[in-house]
Amino acid sequence: MGTLLRRSTRAALHRRLTEGLGEAVDDVTYPVLSGLARAGTRSAADLAAEIGIDRSGVSRRATRLEEAGLLRRTADPDDRRATLLALTEDGERTVAVMRRRLADSIEDTLASWPADEARAFARALHRFTEEGPFTAAP
Question: What is the reported pTM?
Answer without folding.
Answer: 0.84
